[in-house]
Amino acid sequence: MSKPQIAIVDYQMGNLRSVQKALEHVGFVAEITSDPARVEAADKVILPGVGAFGDAIAELHRRELVSPIQQAISAGKPFLGICLGLQMLFDVGFEGGEHVGMGVLPGRVEKFGTIENRKVPHMGWNQVSIAHADCPLLKDIPATAHFYFVHSYYVVPENASDVWLTCDYGQEFCAAVWRENLFATQFHPEKSQRDGLQLLKNFAEL
């Protein structure tokens, strides 16, 4: 049986090759593409991202990639957002002004305030707490897993049921969301060594 076709969305803002190499390491082929038709045709879609919310969402619109992403999610295809790829799923982000997101999940993206004895951005390894232990992407990942974060903004979902993982950085914040076929993490699984690779493997095997 041929392996599923995985599209990594290319909008010039993300560690695309790092995600692709991580998937290759666990035995899966993924295509980096900015072609809306290729994204729409894929069996699974990954939306990475590093950078500013407003610039990123504008670039997705410019490349006509928003609709294929929304359609893939609504069609029930496995979807994984990473970092900025998580944040843009929400209604609105407040990085450098107010910017409308993709509106796939209700909620907003806010900046960390002043946190005592903590630097912003939140950068480095941190442990997550599990809100939904039955998530299939947690297969063979310990409950005490640490993942690698780099961010100054965090998502605030309207629906508590969408929160999959949380993390503490002087305040508790949503570290990942899960709703049916949609998964998205604030941390970078491609930079998170064994547990991050296992998470990507679990996604690819869905």
UniProtKB/TrEMBL annotation:
Q: What are the entry keywords?
A: Amino-acid biosynthesis, Cytoplasm, Glutamine amidotransferase, Glycosyltransferase, Histidine biosynthesis, Hydrolase, Lyase, Transferase
UniProt subcellular location: Cytoplasm
List GO terms (cellular component aspect): cytoplasm
Keyword Cytoplasm recorded:
yes
Q: Give the superkingdom in one word.
A: Bacteria
According to its UniProt record, the EC number is 4.3.2.10, 3.5.1.2
Cite the Pfam families for this sequence: GATase
Q: Where are the catalytic residues?
A: 83, 188, 190
Q: Which HAMAP family match?
A: HisH
Q: How does it assemble?
A: Heterodimer of HisH and HisF.
Q: What protein name does the entry list?
A: Imidazole glycerol phosphate synthase subunit HisH
Q: What gene is this protein translated from? A: hisH1
